[in-house]
Amino acid sequence: MDIQLEPQAAGRMSGEELKKLHERMKKREKSRRLRKLGARFGVNLIVSVLVILPLLYALSIAFMPSGELFSMEMNLLPKAPTVDNFVQAFAKIPLFRFILNSFLVAGCITIGQIISCSLAAFALSFLDFKGKNVIFMLIMATMMVPGEATIISNYLTVSGWGWLNTYKVLIIPYMTSAMGIFLFRQFYLTFPKSLYEAAKIDGCPNLVFIIKILIPLTKSAIGAMAVYTFINAYNMYMWPLLVTGTEEMRTVQIGISMLNSVDSQSITMVIAGVVMVILPSLLVFILGQKQLIRGMFSGAVKG
After folding, report:
1. What is the largest CA-CA distance in the chain?
2. Which of 59, 101, 117, 301 would give a disulfide with 180, using CB separation of 3.0 to 4.6 Å?
3. Is 149 part of a structural domain of the chain?
4. Reduced to 3 DSSP states, what percent helix, strand and coil does the chain have, rounded to the nearest 5?
C-alpha cells in the first residue's frame, strides 16, 4: 500500500518524521524491486533448466557404462564414469576426419558468403543502375523456394560437371545466400551515401572503399553473418548425404550416423559421439552470441 500525504499534512510533519517516512518508502520500493527481480530470476532459471536438461542428460549418458543405462534404476548421473564410450566412438569411425571435413567446409562457406554477400550488398546499396530494385526483389524471392525443390536439379548439374565426392561440390553451391545479402544491405543503408560520394571525389576505388571503410564499420554484421553461416554449414545433412560417398569426404553430420550400425549397437557410444559433434557448434554459438544479436539488430535502427 503506497503512502500518500496531503500537502497540509506533509507541511505539519517535522524534518525527522519526513526523513523516516522517506526511508520507509525507499525500503518498500527496494523490497518491491527485489521481489520482481527474484520472480524473473526464478522463471529464467526454470526455463533454462528445462532447455539445457536434455543436453546435460546426454552428457551424463556419454560418461555412463552401458550396464548402468539399461538397468531398472533411474540413473541420472553415472555411478562409475568412464571415457571408454569416447574411445570406442573414435575407434569405430574416423570421427576426427569427419569433424575436420565439416570445419573445412563450414569455414570456406562462411568466408565465401561474407565476401560475396558484402560485395552484392554494396552494389545494391551504394551504386545506381537500372533494375537494382528488381534484382533485389528477385534475390529475396529465392528465400521462398525450399531447398528440396532444387536439390535434384542441382545434383544433376554437379554430377554432369564431375564434382561428386569432392570439396567443390560441398562448398561452391553455398558460396552466397539471400539472407547474407539482405543482412549486409540493411546494414549498409544505415550509412549516409555522402560517405561513398566523398570517397569517390577523393579518387577512392570501390574495392578500396569496401576494404578500408565499410569492413571496419561493419564488424558486428560480419560477426553475426559468420556465426549464423558457420552453424548452418556445420549442420548441413541432406546435401552432403547426396553428393558424398566415401568416408574421406563425409561430413560429421553424415558420419555420426555410422555409429548406429547393426554391429555397434551401443546407445552410450552413440551419445558420446553426438556430444563430440555438437560441442564445436555449441561453442561457436556461445562465443559469438553477443556478436550475433548485435549484428542482427544494428541494421534495424538508424541514427
Report:
1. 95
2. 117
3. yes
4. 75, 0, 25
Q: What is the pLDDT confidence band of residue 301, given thresholds at 50, 70 and 90?
A: very low
Over residues 247-261, the pLDDT tens digits come to 888 998 888 887 776
pLDDT(264) > 60: no
pLDDT on residue 297: 59
User: pLDDT per residue over 62-118, tens digit each?
Assistant: 888 877 777 767 777 888 888 888 888 888 888 889 989 999 999 999 999 999 999
Q: Is there a contact between 278 and 113 (Cβ–Cβ < 8 Å)?
A: no
Query: pTM for the full model?
Result: 0.78
Q: Which of the pair, 21 or 7, is modelled with greater confidence?
A: 21
CATH number of domain containing 153: 1.10.3720.10
Domain presence at residue 35: yes
Q: Give me the domain span that covers residue 12.
A: 7-62
- Please enumerate, as own/partner, the contacts of 4-11 that have beta carbons within 8 Å and a separation of 24 or more: none
222: exposed, middle or buried (C-beta count within 10 Å: 0-12, 13-18, 19+)? buried
Q: Tell me, yes or no, whether 129 and 225 share the same domain.
A: yes
Number of domains into which the chain is organized: 2
8 A C-beta contact, residue 294 and residue 219:
no
47 and 186 inside one domain: no
Residue 97 placed within a domain: yes
The answer to whether the beta carbons of residues 250 and 240 sit under 8 Å apart is: yes
Contact partners, residue 187, CB within 8 Å, separation at least 6: 121, 218, 221, 295, 298, 299
SS3 at position 93 = coil
Do 111 and 146 lie in one domain? The reply is yes
Q: How far is CA 224 from CA 44, 179, 221, in A?
A: 25, 12, 5
Comparing CA positions, the residue from 213, 194, 192, 183 lying closest to residue 300 is 183
CA distance 38 to 31: 10
Residue 214 grid coordinates: 565499410
